[in-house]
Design a protein that fits this description.
The structure holds two protein chains of two kinds. By secondary structure, chain A is α+β, with helices and mostly antiparallel strands. Chain A has two domains: 175 residues, 3-Layer(bba) Sandwich (FAD/NAD(P)-binding domain), CATH 3.50.50.60; 146 residues, D-Amino Acid Oxidase, subunit A, domain 2 (D-Amino Acid Oxidase, Chain A, domain 2, 2-Layer Sandwich), CATH 3.30.9.10. Helix content of chain A is 26%, strand content 29%. In chain A, the strands form four sheets. An eight-stranded mixed sheet of chain A has the order 6-7-5-15-16-17-14-18. A six-stranded mixed sheet of chain A has the order 9-2-1-13-20-19. In chain A, a hairpin with an 8-residue loop joins strand 15 and strand 16. Chain A is globular, with a radius of gyration of 21 Å. Chain B has three domains: 87 residues, Ubiquitin-like (UB roll), CATH 3.10.20.30; 127 residues, Fumarate Reductase Iron-sulfur Protein, Chain B, domain 2 (Orthogonal Bundle), CATH 1.10.1060; 108 residues, 3 helical TM bundles of succinate and fumarate reductases, CATH 1.20.1300.10. In chain B, strands 2-1-5-3-4 form a five-stranded mixed sheet. Chain B has a two-stranded antiparallel ribbon with strand order 6-7. A two-stranded antiparallel ribbon of chain B has the order 8-9. In chain B, helix 4 runs antiparallel to helix 5 and helix 8 crosses helix 10. Chain B is globular, with a radius of gyration of 25 Å. The termini of chain B are far apart. Chains A and B meet through strand 4 and strand 18 of A and helix 2 and strand 9 of B.
Chain lengths: 386, 378
């Protein structure tokens, strides 16, 4: 193991995958998280292992990332997914008109598809709206939003990484114009803590801008919440998407004994204060029922909101117009050394985000270590607690 | 609906490493009919006290992270609306787990035992049987129902007194492996639970099943394991103990010990049966001792015995006789239930069985009491 110590701020999917990547490259890693791991955006996402088809037309860069990572994750995290595939269903003539564009997008981004007739689709999923015109099968899946990142963290810990939960970063340690560590509060003992580091990575998701401000730099992250509604019962076994341009309430993900309908999209300043507007819950029911009519009567288990950490300018309206891809910032460009930010992306692409970030980190540290996360099979999530 | 707001006071358990003792802080929160305990605790952290620690992740009762106790009962905070819980709500961490701080407990001992059952996360899907698997999909799958939240372990009165007990979550997982091995060896799992601190330790309070947020029914699973061990194909020679439950929890573990056996607050009917079974058991032992002591009088001759018989006819003594009869009937009838349910007979209807037997108890008690009184005062 090298003598270099990297502190990662944020114990979400990004921080977890990055800890794993850097630990495999022989770097000493400490993850500091102000709450429980995955308690921010990560734990609350839809639970969709994206095929990328949703972004194939409008956001091909993100689509390519999704399909590539989808297949890598199946390999490195076996047993962590409900691998029942997904369907894009055309309900109206308008949906049907989108079909050609959709298929071209999938072909161009390398997403495998299989077109099913109405009757074939209903044989697979009898609860679909019988008005549907056709459906397209894609390699979507269901993931456990918490347990996949736990596998990254478990493996990182095995390779020497430390995870400090309930440690809130409130300040940075400076050596001249170089960030040399973090300071903050350990809420488990009501005491201040200081960690020195050779490099600090800001992986705080929608809170990344807040952390960047501690370094006096700016990162263009737009916290963009969406409402999700979980209802009792699995009304389908496959993930059901609406075959149209990405919009509200157009994905239903079966998960455990539930079905999760999502999402909506708006923009907030404070990711700590997320409302769950009543009209968004109604909208999820309404839109979900257009694809699976029985959802209209399904009993609600919970409704909640999660803030996407989208890369974009502050002028963003709803967040729908912003790409789902990610961006790494080396703040040396703004005159601050030893400080890197990673924002954007999706749970499905967390490993790729970590790879690109870790490449930059080892380059800055002057290490010669290549990424191995495409091959190394992750430990089970239960090992995180060992 | 969201306009009918009210104020609820949350009395929250507080503890930080190094504190001499825990204490409680009370916070006033405004709630709508939809506000969950988790949302209220987040609001407290945001607006009143950023040092409040709690575990949470998925916010829809799928990750099992936000387990805690509300007025004594284990719940997942994310699906517990506060609106109808009264004006003062006490919030405490799970029991039978080492305390880290405030509402956060260490799940390591839980997973140390749970992981040894070897249950895979993904199972064959039992939902939507009408669905045909799509091309390229061999079997439709879904995640297991168990959320690994630990509510059952916190609620179990046997875990409270036996730190080596495998506990309801691990044994429910073991039963799932027996039901659907997915490459595992069920015989090995059966051998694992067939031990002093395994399935035979359960006292059928069924509180595990009552507090389970996802209908896993660990109590019924334990009964099924016993039935399989008694009736099933003979188990192979037991392998060397492959499991070591933690022999003792750190002193910060919120273990209540024997006190948990006699505290049915916020508990379901199975727990009350458990408490009364213990109380009547102790009562019957006490009675036997008294009975032997009284028989000593026989040795002192007829006079002493006649004096005792006069006392035995007094109304107070008759009342005690009726109480004794209740103890005998309860312990006997609930014993029948424990014996049947413990071997998997009607485990799914243990509550109905309890109430049916209690009906029988009332009839027998009335007949017996009338008989007693009639015999003494004809």
């Amino acid at each position: 193991m090298s003598a270099y110590h990297v502190v990662i701020i944020g114990g979400g999917a990004t921080g977890a995958a990055l800890a794993h990547d850097l630990a495999l490259r022989g770097v000493q890693v400490t993850v500091v998280e102000r709450g429980e791991v995955t308690s921010g955006t990560t734990g609350r996402h839809h639970g969709l292992l994206h095929s990328g088809a949703r972004y194939a037309v409008k956001d091909p860069e993100s689509a390519r990332e999704c399909i590539e990572e989808n297949f890598i994750l199946r390999r490195i995290a076996p047993g962590s997914f409900e691998l029942n595939d997904g369907l894009f269903v055309a309900i109206t003539d308008e949906d049907l008109a989108y079909y050609d564009e959709f298929m071209e997008g999938c072909a161009a981004t390398g997403i495998p598809t299989r077109t099913l007739s109405r009757d074939e689709a209903l044989r697979l999923e009898p609860n679909l709206n019988p008005d549907l015109k056709l459906a397209v099968q894609v390699p979507d899946g269901t993931m456990d939003a918490m347990r996949l990142p736990l596998r990254f963290l478990a493996t990182a810990k095995k390779n020497g990484a430390r995870v400090l939960t309930y440690h809130q970063v409130t300040d940075l340690v400076w050596r001249g114009r170089t960030v040399a560590g973090v300071r903050g509060r350990d809420h488990t003992r009501n005491r201040d803590f200081t960690l020195t580091a050779d490099l600090v990575v800001n992986a705080a998701g929608p809170w990344a801008e807040h952390i960047a401000r501690l370094a006096g730099v700016d990162v263009p992250v737009v916290p963009s919440p969406g409402v999700l509604v979980a209802v009792y019962g699995r009304w389908t076994n496959m993930v059901i998407n609406r075959l149209h341009r990405a919009g509200d309430g157009d994905i239903v993900v079966p998960q455990r004994t539930l079905s999760v309908i999502g999402t909506s999209s708006w923009v907030v300043d404070d990711p700590d204060h997320l409302d769950v507007p009543e009209e968004h819950i109604r909208l999820m029911y309404e839109k979900g029922a257009e694809m699976i009519p029985a959802l209209a009567q399904a009993r609600m288990r919970a409704a909640w909101a999660a803030a996407r950490p989208l890369v974009g300018s502050r002028g963003a309206q709803s967040g729908r117009e912003l790409s789902r891809t990610f961006k790494v910032f080396d703040h040396a460009d703004e005159g601050v050394e030893g400080f890197v930010t990673i924002v954007g992306g999706k749970a499905t692409t967390a490993r790729a985000m970590a790879e690109v970030t870790a490449d930059l980190v080892v380059r800055k540290l002057g290490l010669d270590a290549v990424c191995r996360t495409r091959e190394v099979v992750l430990l089970p999530h239960t090992a995180y607690y060992a | 609906m969201s306009h009918t707001t009210r104020t609820v006071h949350l009395r929250v358990f507080r503890y930080k490493a190094g504190d001499a003792a825990p204490h409680y802080d009370t916070f006033a929160v405004t709630v709508t009919p939809r506000t969950t305990l988790l949302e209220a605790l987040q609001a407290i952290r945001r607006e009143h006290d950023p040092s409040l620690t709690l575990r949470h992740s998925c916010h829809h009762a799928s990750c099992g992270t936000c387990g805690m106790r509300v007025n004594g009962q284990e719940v997942l905070a994310c699906v517990t609306p506060l609106h109808d819980l009264g004006d003062l709500v006490t919030v405490e961490p799970l029991q039978n787990a080492p305390l880290i701080s405030d509402l956060v407990v260490d799940m390591a001992p839980f997973y140390a035992t749970f992981a040894q059952a070897g249950m895979p996360l993904v199972r064959a899907s039992d939902n939507e049987a009408g669905s045909q698997p799509a091309a390229g999909i061999e079997t439709l799958t879904r995640f297991e129902s168990c959320l690994e939240c630990g509510l059952c372990v916190s609620a179990c009165p046997v875990v409270a007194t036996d730190p080596r007990y495998l506990g309801p979550a691990a044994m429910a997982a073991a039963w799932r492996v027996v039901q659907e091995p997915r490459g595992a060896d069920p015989a090995q799992v059966l051998a694992w639970v067939d031990q002093e601190h395994g399935c035979w330790r359960c006292h059928l309070a069924f509180e595990c099943s009552s507090v389970c947020p996802n209908d896993v029914q660990p109590g019924q699973a334990i009964a099924a394991l016993r039935q399989r061990l008694v009736l099933g194909e003979p188990a192979p020679p037991r392998p060397a103990a492959r499991v070591e439950a933690p022999s003792a929890l750190p002193p910060t573990a919120q273990r209540r010990g024997l006190a948990a056996w006699f505290d049915p607050r916020g508990r379901d009917v199975g727990y009350w049966a458990f408490v009364f079974h213990r109380l009547t058991g102790l009562g019957l032992v006490l009675y036997l001792a008294l009975h032997l002591w009284v028989l000593r009088l026989l040795a002192r001759g007829p006079q002493a015995w006649d004096a005792f018989l006069a006392l035995a006819r007094s109304p107070l003594f008759l009342a005690l006789d009726v109480l004794l009869l209740f103890g005998v009937l309860f312990h006997g009838l609930n014993g029948v239930r424990v014996a049947l349910v413990g071997l998997g007979v009607a485990a799914g209807r243990h509550k109905s069985l309890f109430w049916a037997l209690m009906g029988l108890l009332i009839v027998a008690l009335l007949v017996g009491a009338w008989g007693l009184v009639a015999a003494v005062h004809p």
